[in-house]
Structure formats: C-alpha cells, structure tokens
Amino acid sequence: MPRSIPEPPFDLEALIPEFAGPARETILLYPRSGDPGVHESSMGGPLLWPAGEPWPYCTQSGHSI
Questions:
Q1: Does the predicted model carry a pTM greater than 0.90?
Q2: Which site in 36, 40, 56, 62 is 20 to 30 Å from 47, CA atoms measured?
C-alpha cells in the first residue's frame, strides 16, 4: 500500500535556491515490525539465521568482537 507525506508548508527551493539543482524525487521506506516465516524477508522483523551456522565476525587486528 503506497503511503505519502504531506507537502511541506513552505517552498524549500525559494528559501534555499542552491537545493533546486540537485533536488530529486525519493522513495520513503516504512518498515514495520513483523513475524517473518523461514522463507520470508526479515526486513522490519527479527533476523533469521541458520542455527547450525556461526555468526560472522571480523578477525582483523584492532577490531573488537
């Protein structure tokens, strides 16, 4: 379901003309908490990690675990 936000109550390009050139349309993500199954994405929910697979970590010197 697409969602939208209201227009700003002011004209940003008129207030800050330097923003007019690099301005682009963007997409806002609205993640929601969820309860994904084993074959679903974990975005917005718990991270699903195989029980038999160790959690990755960095072995580089100077990095904390």
A1: no
A2: 62
Instruction: Give the per-residue SS3 of the chain.
Output: CCCCCCCCCCCHHHHCHHHCCCCCCCCCCCCCCCCCCCCCCCCCCCCCCCCCCCCCCCCCCCCCC
> Tokens in use for 64?
């904390």
Long-range own/partner contacts, residues 46-52 (CB < 8 A, 24 or more apart): none
Q: Tell me which residue has tokens 């195989």.
A: 50
Summarised one tens digit per residue, pLDDT across range 1-49 is: 566 778 889 888 899 999 888 888 888 777 767 676 767 766 656 677 7
What CA–CA distance (Å, rounded) separates 57 from 63?
Answer: 10
Q: What is the Cα Rg of the chain in Å?
A: 21
